[in-house]
Design brief:
The chain is α/β, with parallel strands linked by helices. It contains eleven helices and 16 strands. It holds the Pfam family DUF4336.
Length: about 400
């Protein structure tokens, strides 16, 4: 194929990946959203993955599709690009129409922002949302946020989506100041699959498949200074991915420091780096030599390491450990549970009643709401919000009977 033909094909592919509403929530990769499609459970559960993040700190976010008795149910919508919709329509041809679109979180803006566009793409589907939806900085009703009122239902308040085959379990609600945190997990009984949003994640050392299409974010973070070029090797991909995981987990890891502005500028605008992709050589990070030791409890070797996301533990549940343990107790009683499918990072992850009980025991014995090492920055944010009265001392008080 000629260079001209390759260029034409590339332009056509990019046009199918366009997301025109990205300015509403300007996350990387902005207006172009590559979708990776996977079958997780043969003929029953599928995954659509896209990247989302800030400043090249981008991680996979997942739409899960489940075949039900009535058709297809979508959980945690993604930007409905032409590429994504084409694959969804091919699933409809084989397994029936999209009948339900579920937003199972009250606070997950990265999931909420795509719901109105997905609703327009499937005008006959019912929309199910977690109770207590809120917006910031202005409190607006769902209708003004683009949710079609006549098709929108609240989980529990107005019934349950696909209740013949699914059990729905709530984590929370918790008062987090600006609104509530609540996440409703879906247990698909025919396959033994638990679909969660943010409550559980699993991370492994192999970079996600999405970076095969554009490894720029992980190559950017694999460098040690801004004057280094973006070099693509398997080892540098794993190095960049590990650092990216530390960023997304702790926001400001303990092994990371910010150099003086003079040093940042000194290493910037070097030949070969004078482009937007390399951020013109602007690289405001310095990693300690032993930074890799920080990844031991975050990243599994050759398989996902199950965990609660550090940001969730330290900023949402620091004073609500008992509520998280209660939720795990409920999950451990689900009969036939085999796997968990989170909305971020790796999926599926082995997860049965025994694994759940072991995980619960580990958390119950852990030092919760930690304040040292990698946790220093998150701890300072939580304490500052608590001191200013933004978040309550007792996040469950507002919801007690």
């Amino acid at each position: 194929m000629s260079k001209t033909s390759n260029h034409t094909v590339n332009r056509q592919e990019l046009s199918r990946q366009k997301w025109y509403w990205w300015p509403l929530f300007p996350l990387y990769p902005y207006g172009i959203r590559k979708t990776v499609f996977k079958e997780l459970v043969p003929n029953q559960i599928w995954s659509f993955e896209q990247l989302q993040g800030l400043y090249y700190v981008a991680v996979p976010v997942r739409l899960t599709v489940i075949k039900t008795l009535n058709g297809l149910m979508l959980i945690n919508p993604l930007p409905p690009t032409d590429e994504l919709l084409d694959i969804l329509h091919s699933l409809e041809d084989k397994h029936g129409p999209v009948v339900s679109i579920v937003l199972p979180t009250a606070s997950g803006l990265e999931h909420k922002i795509s719901m109105p566009a997905m609703a327009r793409a499937f005008p006959k589907a019912l929309l199910w949302v977690c109770p207590g939806q809120w917006s910031f900085p202005l409190a607006m009703p769902l209708a003004l946020l683009g949710f079609p009122v006549n098709r929108t239902r609240r989980i529990f308040n107005d019934g349950l989506p696909e209740s013949q085959s699914c059990e729905w379990i709530s984590l929370g609600p918790l008062d987090i100041g600006l609104g509530r945190f609540q996440e409703i997990s879906c247990f698909h009984k025919p396959t033994g699959s638990l679909i969660v949003t943010d409550a559980l994640i699993g991370i492994q050392d192999k970079p996600p498949e999405l970076f095969d299409y554009d490894p720029t974010p992980i190559l950017f973070h694999a460098r040690d200074s801004g004057d280094q070029p973006l070099v693509d090797t398997p080892l540098l991909r794993k190095k960049g991915w590990a650092r990216l995981v530390l960023f997304s987990s702790f926001l400001k890891p303990d092994k990371l420091s910010i150099p003086p502005v003079g040093i940042i500028l000194k290493n910037s605008f070097r030949p070969g780096l004078r482009n937007l992709k390399a951020h013109f050589g602007i690289y405001p990070f310095v990693w300690a030599k032993d930074w890799e030791t920080s990844t031991a409890k975050l990243i599994g070797k050759n398989r996902p390491l199950l965990q609660i996301a550090p940001v969730l533990e330290r900023l949402v549940f620091p004073r609500a450990k008992d509520e998280f343990l209660r939720w795990l107790d409920t999950l451990s009683k689900l009969k036939g549970m085999r796997r968990v499918i989170p909305a971020h990072f790796s999926a599926p992850i082995d997860f049965n009643s025994r694994i759940c009980r072991d995980f619960r025991r580990k958390i119950s014995l852990s030092n919760w709401a930690k304040s040292d090492g990698n946790w220093i920055f998150l701890d300072s944010v939580d304490k500052s919000l608590l001191k200013k009265g933004v978040v309550p001392q007792d996040p469950l008080r507002a919801f007690r009977d």
